[in-house]
Predict the 3D structure of the following.
Amino acid sequence: MTTRNDPSPAAVSVPPASLAQVTGGPAVQLPTAFGYFTARAWTDSATGVEHLSITSPVRPDTAPLVRLHSECLTGDVFASFRCDCGEQLDQALALIAEQGGTVLYLRGQEGRGIGLANKIRAYALQEDGADTVEANEQLGLPVDARDYSAAASILHAMGLGSIRLLSNNPAKSSTLSGYGISVVEMISSEVPSREQNLRYLQTKRDRMDHRLALLEDHPVHQS
């Protein structure tokens, strides 16, 4: 696993109105195949969307490892090979159990925020030759419609103002920094590619600036 110490953009003070208002429920024990965690549900007061924090104790004097994981029914539940989401979630839970930290499972972010039905429509376009960016564009939808204001609010509520971010996406780091969360380090969440998701990952690397070092030997061949 690759560790990156690239400096993230400086954290800035954010007006409270810029952050989503969230309320947290009771903390409960969550025994899993990856280890024992503490789970807590959080509700976005404006949208009603419910998110989940899954936490393991952090070692003293260590910034917590945090994964912002966007809901992906096909990958997380049905273990689809069209993306890397399910394997990234498994990786994150294993690392959080080992090192301490939090997985924020962000619901309402299916298909980078376009929803399940639209994601399946995008898959159909990909089967006709479009890449994951082109498919969203052909549907008249944003390439990435996700909003991390609720995630930032949850991190603030949990007292996690300084984190190590488990992600390949620099945009997450800069967005969190804009909400006053200091990302002191980015840790790669890359998992090995598969034949079924290679083009998807290449597109994220080449068109969405994801840092995917394992793909260096797989250039995209344009037709």
